[in-house]
Amino acid sequence: MTIVSEKQNLKIMVIDDSSTIRRSAEIFLGQVGYQVILAEDGFDALAKINDYHPDLIFCDILMPRLDGYQTCALIKKSAKFRDTPVIMLSSKDGLFDRARGSIVGSNEYLTKPFTKDSLLKTVRNYTD
């Protein structure tokens, strides 16, 4: 009989146009057993969300084509995914960015570069 960690069943999507940020998040989350889905922009993410049904989404704000605010708003408008927590990622820690994130439905705001501890703490806040 194999005991499966609950973390292995949790799927976390990371949307960021920076391969460094995607890779860091993938390593940090993968080390503790989460399934990680990576997307390099909003369009890529929207295509994958339907296929993978992530339990939590980290979304960069500044991305080409479809920015994080637009991506978050589209996720939250979907009846199927409106309850999925979306955490905005940004290198700016401004009040305006936080307010705009709240307006489009984001659940929280994490400043980049994030640490492994801050990333995992944020995941635990929404998945435990």
Explain how this protein is built.
InterPro entries: Bact_response_regulator, CheY-like_superfamily, Sig_transdc_resp-reg_receiver. One of its GO terms (biological process) is phosphorelay signal transduction system. The modification 4-aspartylphosphate is found at residue 60. The protein is of the alpha/beta class and 128 residues long. The chain has one domain (8-121): Response regulator (Rossmann fold, 3-Layer(aba) Sandwich), CATH 3.40.50. It has six helices and five strands. The protein has helices at 6-9, 19-31, 42-52, 68-77, 95-103, 116-127; strands at 11-15, 35-39, 56-60, 86-90, 108-111. β4 (86-90), α5 and β5 (108-111) form a beta-alpha-beta unit. α3 runs parallel beside α4 (68-77). It is globular. The mean pLDDT is 92.
Tally of separate domains: 1
Number of helices: 6
How far do the termini sit from each other?
25 Å
Largest sheet: 5 strands, parallel
What is the strand tally?
5
Name the beta content range.
Answer: 15-25%
The arrangement of helices and strands along the chain is HEHEHEHEHEH
Shape: globular
What's the CATH superfamily, by name?
Response regulator
Determine and state the CATH class: Alpha Beta
Radius of gyration: 14 Å
As laid out across the biggest beta sheet, the strand order is: 2-1-3-4-5
Helix content: 40-55%
Tell me the CATH topology: Rossmann fold
Reported CATH architecture: 3-Layer(aba) Sandwich
Q: Can you tell me the residue ranges where pLDDT is under 50 for at least 5 consecutive residues?
A: none
- By secondary-structure content and strand pairing, the structural class works out as alpha/beta
Mean pLDDT: 92
